[in-house]
Each structure stands twice: as structure tokens, then as C-alpha cells.
Amino acid sequence: MPEMPQMKKNRRWDIFCTVVDNYGDIGVTWRLARQLVAEHGVAVRLWVDDLRAFERMCPEIDIHIAQQWQQGVEVRHWAADWQPAEAADVVIAAFACQLPSAYMDAMAEREKPPLWMNLDYLSAEDWVIGCHGLPSVKFKHVQKFFFFPGFQKGTGGLLRESGLLERRQQFQQDPEAQRAFLQSLGVDRAPAAQLISLFAYENTGLASWLDALASDSTPTHVLVPEGRILGDVERWLGVSDLKAGALHVREAVTVQVLPFVRQDQYDQLLWCCDFNAVRGEDSFVRAQWAARPLLWHIYQQEEDVHLDKLEAFLALYVKGLSEPAREAISGLWRAWNAGEKITDHWHSTRKHWPELEKHAQTWCLEQALQADLATALVQFYGNWI
């Protein structure tokens, strides 16, 4: 998008991130910060309160220093003892985090108030369209605005770097590139095995899924990045202290633990797999760009309000599927998120595999017709000024 003349004078952005869910919050803001720098030429400071969580995603991070540069982004430690900092032209509070009071005063002291946005959680609920872009609260004379990522026109879209789908398609059409990547992670995929990635929260329904895979006539290789689901994997295997590199075989299923990888490597992992179980927000979006069938473990919220979000997304996602395929994938998602046995739902899903594969590709292309989240933010700023 050509840069508006006014934007050349006002292009310093601050993004604030409090790490709540280990990696999801920092995963989204780190992708966004890098894309704003690389594709829109803005200067970005990323304020993070937990550099140890960030280090897993960016090993070059020095967790002991307060200011550093990583991939063009100025990374600042958001410490309890806040030091004075000049407010930027655009201020993003990711996922409704509360900005430091001294920084809010700095925003109000600017001659021209900054654009202050609350970048909210991703949701497919209908009300999001009506609230996206609306003014929220004010601090003194500084107005805050709601900004909602989303799947429909009238929202802020999804994070998607320029050329992402083209790179993914090229990779998926190159068996040798996939083989080399998997081998770099220590994975030797059997020619006839289906490949599944498993990244999820704790889930009592996992044992039933692994039982189904173990008794299947088709061999399955399950790749489990280090994370919260490992305890359930250990219980099913009857082992303890699973670590990266561990590999166990039971009947038709091979379970292998992978190390925590960088975001671009995780993208490639999703692109390699036939089916991706993902969680939260960041991996959920990346699995959709992989254009492969997926299973989402949504972050659990009080009073089960997350289930409304799950149903809202399902209502959009299953459009265009035949009724049997729609019932199969919806049943699988609901049972998984309820921690129930999913054996029958998995078998039903497998019966409609070709249709679900084609649908995943179609959904990916449909979502790519929207402006990506970073571009939508820049356009919102351009309209605001």
C-alpha cells in the first residue's frame, strides 16, 4: 500500500504485550511488529513484560537487558519499575492490556495525541463487526479505539505476511524441501504414514484419539511440539518426563516430541502435516494459512464463554461442506473442546477426508481476499490522521 504523505511524518509505533498464555500473546505481537517494520516501513517498539517467554520464540533475545534490536524491531522490557518514555504516534495495547500510568500521561502530554488502539482477541462472533473501529474510553483527551481481528468483511482481518501463501504452496509442492525440513527436526517420515501435528492445552480426550490412531490400518506419525499437552501424552504412553527428541511407537501410531521452534519453522511444520491440531490464536491462524484440515483447541474462559466463540467460528467455517462432512468436523471440534472421547468423531471425519482437504484450501483462499491485519491497522491510522 502506498504510504500517505502525512504518514511519513508520523510513523513511530509502540506495541504493548503482557504474556498471559505463555506464547500466544507474544506470538501475535511479535509477528505483527516484524511485519509492520518489514512491509510498512514504520519504527516499532515492542514492550514485553516476560522476556523469558519471548526467548523461546526468538533465541537471540538477551533476557537481561532492557533495550535491544531484533529483526528491525526495538524490543523493550516492560518492567515494573517503569522508566519515562516518549509516547509514539500509534499505541497498540494488545489484548486489552493496561498501559503504564506514566506512559498514558506521556500520551496526553503530546502536542498531537497518538492513535490509541486496543487490539482485541480474535473472534468470529457477529457483534465484532459492529464494534470494530469504534471509539472506546478516553484518557484525558486521548481517545482509544477498538480494533478486532476477524474472518469477515468489516473486521481487521488476520495476520498474513506478504507472499505467505505463495511460499506455502511452493513448499507443499516440493517433497524434497519438506523431507529436508523434517529431517532438520529429527523426523523421518514413513512414506505411507499420515503426519499430524499436535499443539494443544491439557485435554482428557487425547487418549481416545491416540487409541483410534493406534488401531487404524493407516500408520500415523504424531509430532508434538513441547507444550502443555505433553502430560496427557505421557499418561497415554505410560512414561514420564518426555522431552524433545523422544520417540515412541505403539501399534500403528508413532509419537515424537519436537523442540520448541521459531515461528517460520512452525509454519513449515504445519505445511508438512496432513492434519494440524492447534490451540489459542496464533497457531490457529497459521493452521488456516496451511490450507490443511485442522482441529482447534480454544482457550478456556470463565462461564464457558469460549464455547460461544467456538460455535461462531464453526458456523462460518463449515459453510459449503456437505451435511455429513459438516456434522463430522463440527462433532470432532466440540468433543475435543469438551475433553470428551473423540474416537467416533475422528472416524467420521476420516470418511470425508478429500472433501475436508479441498474445503481447507478454499477457506484459506477466501480469507486471503481480505486485507491482512497489519495492512488494516496502517490503513486505519491513515484514515484517522
Count structural domains: 2
Parts with pLDDT < 50 across at least 5 consecutive residues: 1-10
Order of helices and strands: EHEHEEEHEHEEHHEHEHEEHEHEHHHHH
Global geometry: globular
Strand content: 15-25%
Total number of helical segments?
A: 15
Indicate the CATH topology of the largest domain.
Rossmann fold
Whole-angstrom Rg: 22 Å
Protein described:
- The strands form two sheets. The protein has an eight-stranded mixed β-sheet. It has a six-stranded mixed β-sheet with strand order 11-12-10-9-13-14.
- The two termini are 16 Å apart.
- The chain is globular and about 70 Å long.
- It has two domains: 8-159 and 371-384, Rossmann fold (3-Layer(aba) Sandwich), CATH 3.40.50; 164-367, Glycogen Phosphorylase B (Rossmann fold, 3-Layer(aba) Sandwich).
- Helices cover 41% and strands 19% of the residues.
- The chain is built from 15 helices and 14 strands.
- Helix 1 (24-40) crosses helix 15 (373-384) and helix 12 packs antiparallel against helix 13.
- 39% of the residues are buried.
- The chain is an alpha/beta fold and 385 residues long.
